[in-house]
Amino acid sequence: MSKRVLGIYGSPRKGGNTDQLLDRALAGAQSAGAQIEAVYARQLKMTGCLECGGCDKTGKCVVDDDMQSVYPLMERADVIILASPIFFYALTSQAKAIVDRAQAMWAKRWLEKTPAERKRYDSGKGYLIAVGATRGKNLFEGIRLEAKYFFDALDMNFEGGLFFRGIDAHSEIQKTPDALDQAFELGKNAVLDF
Q: Domains along the chain?
């Protein structure tokens, strides 16, 4: 049975550097036989987590918005690739809303697994693609931690990813073709290394 790979497009800018990199990663996964699904955070009509506690007893979010269509995609994915440009050394607000709403999946994991079982990840692997305009030494520190704990909530092991500095203008990634090749290989290897 082929693996399911979900790409989460976190950029508010359609067709920009982040989108192009994730497109290539998903093409790589597809070349390895994976079934591909995609979520575009910029298209979702949703709120961030309301911290209402509605998921505490059931592991299901009670907020009725577009995030309800994203939960099943995340639950059935074997691999998730989250892609975001860096905004103030972190994820975009669109991507962060998805991450925050994963609280329901953390609650579900807490309810269904013992403390010992929570030490392992049974639902697959997560990757991050991040693009930043500046060249700051700590540019990716915050987003790496966000991704690690997002995938932890999804019961997935965070496998790292690709991180590109000094990329800003629309389609500037095209001037770094090896970046697109790296993205293709990341997607392909995410499936083949299962």
A: 4-192 (3.40.50.360)
